[in-house]
Write a structure and sequence with these properties.
- The structure is a single chain.
- This protein has a three-stranded mixed sheet, covered by helices on one side.
- β1, α2 and β2 form a beta-alpha-beta unit.
- The longest helix is centred in the N-terminal third of the chain and has 17 residues.
- By secondary structure, it is an alpha+beta fold.
- It has a single domain, classed as hypothetical protein PF0899 fold.
- It starts with a helix and ends with a strand.
- α1 packs across α2.
């Protein structure tokens, strides 16, 4: 369940960052850096994020995850569609 908490944390951060963005309709792409010390592979993280993000503006977002060394989880970029 460790990956669930990581995915939930990323989703909460994205929703907080996009809350004040005018007219954002949906998030289409998310680019992340995921450190190997987080002990979660990118495939597992992607699947878990899809479950956590269901029924949010991130539900159809494409994840681009770069696996890096260290204990990092960084949102590099967020792309979206606007009304």
């Amino acid at each position: 369940m460790h990956e669930y908490h990581l995915a939930e944390s990323v989703l909460k951060s994205i929703l907080a960052k996009t809350k004040d963005m005018p007219n954002v309709k949906k998030i289409t792409a998310i680019r992340l850096k995921l450190g190997n010390l987080k002990m979660v592979g990118k495939e597992t993280f992607s699947e878990t994020f899809k479950q956590v993000a269901a029924k949010t503006i991130c539900s159809d977002a494409k994840l681009d995850i770069e696996e890096v060394m260290g204990d990092t989880l960084v949102i590099e970029d967020i792309e979206g569609e606007y009304e």
